[in-house]
Amino acid sequence: MRSAIGRAETAVLANDAGVRHLYDHDVLTRPLFCFGRVAIASYFTIGANPSADDFRAGRWGAGDLASQCFSYFDRVTPHDFFPNWEAALEPLITMSYASGGLSHLDVSPRATKSLRAINSLGDAVINDFLAMARADASYLFEILAIVWPQVRGLFAAGTITKKKYLDAFLAAVGPSHGFGFRRRCVFSGRATSPLASSKVYDVTFGGRSVPLFFCPVGASADRPGEQEYFRAQVKENAEYLRTLFF
Which of 99, 121, 187, 240 is the most buried (most CB within 10 A)? Predict the structure, then answer.
């Protein structure tokens, strides 16, 4: 895992100049490939990309990147994103990021402008972000392939720009990296269409399948009622989800 992160960091930095317009210019960042003890985790949350606010808060330094990734929850007070995920998953799994049983991965390791900012800058910038994410997804799937024998479940939520829900993005790019996504069920919730519904997928790689739960509202959502909805989607479906994740 350390060598994979080292190679990936070198590769990302080598082509970063072409996407610098997607970054905030007031903060120096590094590519982040995982959060927590991926080598022992059984469950993984998946997001779009890291937050530049983590760097503004001084949670990352210039030392060994892999060590900082693995020890993130031991050495800093984590971004609010992570307690929000833990609160949502509490009815389903008892482990935390700090315990090592839960870890986090992102589609792109680049801590760019926030998705809200990207969405406000128009179609050209959104399309550039999506092109970057499609290329960077190879790092996500490389890490998943390494840890796949130990993975018992995946959780994803939210969008990757306003043009794409994260589950649809993963299902579209996964096959080119050997990962198949088959929709198992849809939970209607408040959604007016299946695209905006919570879902469960069977994710298959190397002949082994694990469940992925997706919620259309993400752990960073901050509009009134969104975090309550995010938590409710797991809680209301926990009985069924336990049959898949345990």
Answer: 187
